[in-house]
Structures are given as structure tokens and as C-alpha cells.
Amino acid sequence: MRAAVFDGPGEIGIEEVPTPEVESPRAAVVRVTHTAVCGSDLWFYRGESDRETGSRVGHEPMGVVEAVGEDVTSVEPGDRVLAPFVISCGRCEFCRKGLHTSCVNGDSWLGAQAEYVSTSEADGTLVRVPDRYADDEATLQALLPLTDVMGTGHHAAVSAGVGQGDTAVVVGDGAVGLCAVLAARRLGAERIIAMGHHEDRLALAEEFGATQTVTERGEAAVERARELTYGGGNHVLECVGAASAMDTAIEVCRPGGTVGYVGVPYGVDESGLDVFTMFSDNITLSGGVAPVRAYAEELMADVLGGRLDPSPIFTKTVDLDGVPEGYRAMDERDAIKVMVRP
Amino acid sequence: MRAAVFDGPGEIGIEEVPTPEVESPRAAVVRVTHTAVCGSDLWFYRGESDRETGSRVGHEPMGVVEAVGEDVTSVEPGDRVLAPFVISCGRCEFCRKGLHTSCVNGDSWLGAQAEYVSTSEADGTLVRVPDRYADDEATLQALLPLTDVMGTGHHAAVSAGVGQGDTAVVVGDGAVGLCAVLAARRLGAERIIAMGHHEDRLALAEEFGATQTVTERGEAAVERARELTYGGGNHVLECVGAASAMDTAIEVCRPGGTVGYVGVPYGVDESGLDVFTMFSDNITLSGGVAPVRAYAEELMADVLGGRLDPSPIFTKTVDLDGVPEGYRAMDERDAIKVMVRP
After folding, report:
1. Other CB atoms closer than 10 Å to residue A39's CB: what's the count?
2. What is the CATH number of the domain that holds B326?
3. Chains A, B: CB pairs < 8 Å
């Protein structure tokens, strides 16, 4: 089969690789019909994080089950499924408490920007799309973000403690930030302040439910957000993952408030967190890599019920040969998020 | 009157200074009968944090009200009172939500290791000891830690989310760590694992309710604590404030768990927090400078009811002339905490 491969910074190739097979009783192979390029992929694409040359890429699979191992009970060949960005068993302590990213049997996808993927843990990982929606293209495109960015934005909102009537401040206007706006609205936030630097994305944030936007940069952005929140927000959703965004999130947080963070914190180890401000103001830092599997059912229910549609984040679609172009478009911010249809 | 003054690293002097007077309608002057030397004072005493030479020291006052301004309603001259380590108004948003350390009218004490102190906000700051206990020396010594370390240990336990039946891991065997053990037990913890390096203090931790102690250092300590908790504790109370202790706390925290931290995080800005571990394991960091005023009433009720007695942390008592010796004893770990009776 054909799959996307990392050939070094700025270089994605499409190569012939072995087609996966069911190799154990709990495994399954899925033919990928939809997947995506993730903002977190840009870290290695830009050479800002290490990744082995020749390694396969992509971690947001949706498709049709091709084959299952003898112990798999939740899906069968022909079922439409989606899967979170990590493999989880569904049985261990952490899966049971909704922290599938800490699954003791967990694993990464070998690469979902490919014609097929395999999971060693089908029952714990795959989420079945009900048959009546299984071939509805609009529904599938609205469900695809549940593999990563919608669940991640939701985790930011949950971690920041957003509830009914709250004011939420969302730092970042990328796909995760936009999904965080949807998530905050879904959890009942009364005011949602979206902070970012791109007019088109902030316009989408407003469509998604942002009541105000902050387009300033640096200290001016912090001042504006603090003004809009009369001194800082109690619930701040950090959806970028860079050190500067983490600083912004802490600075716009009200004393006693919570920063929910979900972006891989690149650069924070070098520049450090502003722990003194957090300490003085009793700011809680909560979140981490999002256990999106835990949120799949409740978010899917809202998508299928017509109450949630993150699909407008996909502003470009490519086929497998177009994956390199997809990375380029996201890197140059020509696209918010790129859908891949292998 | 006479008061303790910082004369430079390692040098505490006793000087004649102006006796405070009531200078505004909400103010009060208190004759100090009991106060203490705090572990946080050791940072400037050791030259590890900056402090102006000639500045007055001490922030844990208990005493008898000497005079009050015309608008003060909660206390009158002759009342026995204690006060938290910061002045707060009791009226602003933050005081009302129990975050008195962020009080918009807040202030620091000019120096409580003195014959008298004054507060600009008597009603919001002073906590009256009921008359029937006002001259009971054992009760007063059990109440004195409510000015700082007992409220701080409690804040660590609350921030770490300790509740009934939980396992709590307490990092640090100083006065705050020992009070955190009491607080965790009070909140219903079933197992309390105290980590420290001093046998006498850990023996006291066991008297206070610790079910196990960890005396190893470095990686061995982390391994032992993880073994005792079958992979890390869900509730870790960081009660030291140094970067290395924060690292330990994060390392012994179970995925999805919470570190409650209350020590001034010295050194963390240089060495950095292990944000990647926190991110990967979804560890929440909560806490900060403890709003001990918020906890005074509930903790006092337990002290007066005979259910809480942190006074064994005072292993040495000095008068005002003995304050320099009190700092020396704490610096050299000859005393856990020093009581001062001016």
C-alpha cells in the first residue's frame, strides 16, 4: 500500500510500504477513507522537534474496518469507524478513568496518512459510527475532528473548568483553538473571548460562538483580554503549545483561575513557566495530552444530533498524493486544517 | 517598642522602633504575645532571596488588641486575636471567594517579630479567639500555627484534592509538611506517605497521622514512593518550595493526579518545571501562596474542639531577644519551628 513518510524537515514523501495485517487476537485493520494533517505534525516538519527520517506520519484515522482478530467484539469488517490519535486498550485503570493517553497497553499509530492502518487493540481504540450515518459524507467530515482536535479543544475546556455561565478565554486560533471555542460554548460558557492573529480564523471563531476576539499581539493582547474580563479570566484555554502562548495564558488568568493547556509545550523547558505568577495568584495549571477517546461518545452524540459541527476547520482537502502539499499549506497557514482522503 | 530587623544575611538584630498607632478608621494595633520564625524567612536569612537591609521581619502575629479605629466592628481592645501572614480587607471579590492573598486592599505586615503590630484592615484580617480560650496557653500554642503553616499545609491538601479514603503523598518534613500531614488526615485520607530526610521530623509525621515514611533521597526516594503507591499518588502535597522538591512531587504523581504546591518556588525559574512529564501524564499543578485567612474559622473550630493540635511543631521557644538565636536554630535545623514570645 502507499503511505506518507517523513523524509526530513520540509520533506514528506509518498512511498510503497507493507500493507498491515491482523497479527493478534485483539487487532484490527482499517482501510483509511479520511484522515488529516495535524498542527502538531508541523513541529517535526519545521525541524523544531526530532523525528526519525523515514518514519511514517499521521495519527487521525477514520475508515472502514477491513479485518479483525478473533477476540474483537465491538466492530466487524465493513463497519465505519474513527479512532483517536493514540491506541488504547479500554481495560486498564487509566482507560477506565478516562485517561486513555496513559493506557498501560497504549501505543502510537504507525502512520495514519496511508491507505490502511492497524491497531493492536481494536475494542479499546476504534469508535464505531452508527450505520445510518456511515456513508453520510457531511456527517463523516464533522466526525473526523473527533480523532484529535475536537477532543483536544474539549479537553482544554474541561481542564479549565468551563461550565454554564462562565467566561472562557481561548488562546490560539488554530484548529484546536477553534474547536475549544465550540467546546466552551457546548459546555455553557456565556462569554468566549478568542485570542489570535488571523482575521479569517477569528471570523470562524465568531461563527463557532466566540463573543469577542482579541487580535493584538504581546502585551497589548494581554491588556485587551484583561480589560474584556475586568481583570483576567477564570477559565483560560491554552491551545497553542508554545512557550509564549503559555505565558499569555497565565497572564490573562484571573487570580484563583485555571489554565487548561493541551498543546505540546514546546520551548517551555527552555524559557520556563512563570511559576512565580502562578504561585502568587494561585493559578491552577491543568490538562495535558488529551484523552480524546474518553470524549468520543458524547461528542459524537452531539455531532449526530446536529448540535456540533467542527468540519469548517477543514479548509483544504487532498488525496494521498496531495499530503506533501497539505503539509506545505498548513505550514504556510494557507489552510487551517487539511483533510486527507486516501 | 522593640522589634526584630534584618541586618543582612545571617544577621538579625533587635532594635528600638516607633510603636505603631491606629492611623485610620479600619485599623487596629495588637500587642504581640506569640509569634514565630517561618521557614520562608530562611530564604533571605541565607541570602538566597533579596531583602532590604534594615527591614523588619516576621509575619505570624497573635496577641491582644490594644486599640482600634472607629469603623472596626469585629474586635475591641482586650480581645485575643491571631492573624494570617498577610493583611486582607474581607470585602473585595478575592476575599469573598476565599483568596485573601489576592486581596485588592491587601498588604504585608511591617514585621510581626515585635512588641506590637498594626493592620490597616482589622475586620478583614484579625481572627478573634473566643474569650473562654483567650488565656489558655496550650490552646493558644495550638492556634498559633493557623497564622501560617497550618493553613498552608491545609491549602496543599485542599489544592491536591485530598478527600475521604484517598492516599496522600507529602513531600517535605518541615513545619508545613508536618501540618500537611495533619490536614490530609483531617480531610479523611486513608494513607499518608511522608517524604523527608530527618528521622525526628518523620517520627512526628507518624504521630500526626503518616502511615508510611520515605527517607531515601533523589531517585531512590521517588522509586520508593512509587512502589508504596503502586505507581504514583493521585494527591501529592509539595511542601518545600525548592525546585528539586517540585521535581520529586511531579515524579511521584500518578498520571491524571494533582500536585498541590504551597512553598515559594525558589529556583524553579532557573531549573524549570518538568512540563513535559506534566503534559504527558495530565498532572494538574494547583495551589500557590496559601489564603490562610479563609481557613481560620474551620481550623480553629477543630483546635478548640480538641481534634487538631499542630503545636508539637514548636520545638523551641524564645523571647524577643532570642529571635536571632531562633533564626540560627531553624537555619541549622536544630528546631522544626521556633515560637517567639515577645
Report:
1. 24
2. 3.90.180.10
3. 93
Which triple of cell numbers denotes residue B203? 517520627
Chain B, window 75-104: residues with a beta carbon less than 8 angstroms from a chain A beta carbon: 94, 97, 99, 101-102
Domain co-membership, B246 together with B170: yes
The total of structural domains in chain B comes to 2
B287 touches chain A (CB under 8 A): yes
Per residue in B179-237, pLDDT (tens digit) is 999 999 999 999 999 999 999 999 999 999 999 999 999 999 999 999 999 999 999 99
Domain range holding A255?
150-287
Residue A9 near residue A121, CB atoms below 8 Å: no
Contacts of A300 (CB under 8 A, 6+ apart): A127, A129, A143, A146
Are B61 and B134 in the same domain? yes
**How sure is the predictor about B274, in pLDDT bands with cuts at 50, 70 and 90?**
confident
| Binary contact (B264, A279; C-beta < 8 A) | yes
Tens digit of each residue's pLDDT (9 = 90 or more) over A270-318: 777 888 999 999 999 999 999 999 999 999 999 999 999 999 999 999 9
Amino acid at A92: C
Q: Is B274 helix (H, G, I), strand (E, B) or coil?
A: coil
Using a cut of 0.90, tell me whether the model's pTM lies above it. Answer: yes
ipTM at complex level: 0.94
pLDDT of residue B273: 83
Strand-pair partners of B314: B337
Name the residue among B167, B282, B151, B150 with its Cα closest to residue B236: B167
